[in-house]
Amino acid sequence: MTASNQPTASLQPSRIDALVIGAGFGGMYAVHKLSGMGLTVQGIEAGGDVGGVWYWNRYPGARCDLMSLDYCYSFSPEIEQDWTWSEQFAAQPEILAYANFVADRLGLRRRFLFETRVTGATYDDATRIWRVTTDDGRIFEATYCVMASGPLSIPKGVPFDGAEVFKGEILLAAKWPHEPVSFAGKRVGLVGTGSTGVQIVPEVAKTADALTVFQRTPSFSLPMRNVALEPDYVAEIKRNYASIRQAARNSPLGGVRPQSTRPFFSVTPDQRRALMEDSWARGGLSFLGTFSDLLTNPEANEQVAEFVRDKISEVVVDPHTAEKLKPRGYPIFARRPCLDTQYYETFNLPHVTLHDCLESPIIKITEAGLLTSVGEVELDVLIFATGYDGLTGALLNFDVRGRGGLQLRDKWHDGAGSHLGLMMASFPNLFLVCGPNGPAALANIITLDQQNVDWIADAIARMRQDGLATMEPTGRAEQGWMDAVYGLAEQTLVSKANTWYVGGNISGKPRGLSMYTGGFQRYSEACRLAAESGYVDFVFEKAAVESAPGSLAVVGG
User: Fold this and answer.
1) I need a labelling partner for 105 at 20 to 30 A (CA). Which of 222, 401, 460, 487 fits?
2) How far is it, in rounded angstroms, from Cα 349 to Cα 425?
3) pLDDT tens, position by position, 281-333
4) Count of CB atoms within 10 A of residue 162's CB?
5) Is 337:305 a contact under the CB 8 Å cutoff?
6) What are phi and psi of 331, to 5 degrees?
7) Residue 253: helix, strand or coil by DSSP?
8) Which helix (H) or strand (E) holds 273?
9) What is the C-alpha radius of gyration for the chain, rounded to an integer number of angstroms?
């Protein structure tokens, strides 16, 4: 079935084993894995095809900041050998082509409904199934519900009043048009200088008549220094994928980005400087891994931050602009680190202007452009790269109700909580892929997706083997995991910046670093032990054929 060939909606419920929400890399793998176990599986995706965030993110300069050899599946040696990356850091078209390649190879599209949004998911205590509704009237009744909607799938909208009166064109980076957009001869305004804005600026500046970058909080950005992958090197990768994957799984990052065990102050100032210069010259995120304690030692962090600020001054000619571009007031790498290609150099161009929104905030959108506290900036095109409602946004975007009608938004009123980032008390058989209380954005997301899905598949296999209908973590286990998550968060500088990591970009959202910061390897080990212990931290219901409905059993030990 092609993406455009959708079944006709029906008001009759469809009974299935598992429903998977999302057709990004986590959802694609979940559909493949669970259907391979003999389950009847239905995938649902709001977009028109597979690819998740890469289906939507088509803005100029869109590129992954993880190395391509990390940002791909490892479960299929055949796919590893048959797909060849062209660059060290892949661009959006190539990543989307990879997703399509995998979907074609595994025949995944026939198991998905595209251009379909879930409107509600309600657990029925009596029948012990999830009843899921969609925006076109479909109803699914599923034993297992897998949320694979990703940590970054609900973009923020236009954050200012007046969009309806603007005479020009408004573009959202996270929902970019599928057709080409021309900036030739146009005055363009870009709002937002996170990882997306940093990628857009150099590309738009190539053709725009004028570009004004509206910056509130500057980001620390590192040079990507992307390179094409030579055939001999690609052949080496393919011969050694097995050992590369093993190293990634045993890494705190879930990938093979360079990292060090060297504390910052364990070497002399001259040696530190030489190490930083070398990492800067090599590019990519290797700079982040130069020292082991950058996210735990504030003094070390500030010295590294000052090194990067000096680099900005070396590149940007105008001292006033350079100073405005220098991040201050938060630790380096506490916000998502950006990788760029000629970002700072772009501000040396005569038609590119930096507008400091802290000095002169944006008030509203007007017919002609943006009104700030110091006047109006006339524009033909407005681009908003203002981020996402991260981690929890997609899970709270529709009505989810567990036992006794408990709403997920009520359970998470004071912040997201779960056990292992995989399951929640009072929400039986509801599984999270890349959930808000796992490593999420702090690890290689595809490695994490695969690990999560494998754990979920093993848990479902255990239930089916032992005649068990449902599983959920105990409240005590969930609280214990969250205590560990928040305890680790207090030890890292990641929690010290007002970012989407802590909910700081969404008004009214509970604040706090709910991601697991202990590293992928330790997280994966915790998940493994939870299963190998016999799932002692979980409560199971026996299937009706073995006992009366509602019979609870603690399985394990």
Assistant:
1) 460
2) 55
3) 999 888 888 999 998 999 999 999 999 999 999 999 999 999 999 999 999 98
4) 14
5) no
6) -70, 145
7) coil
8) helix 269-282
9) 24
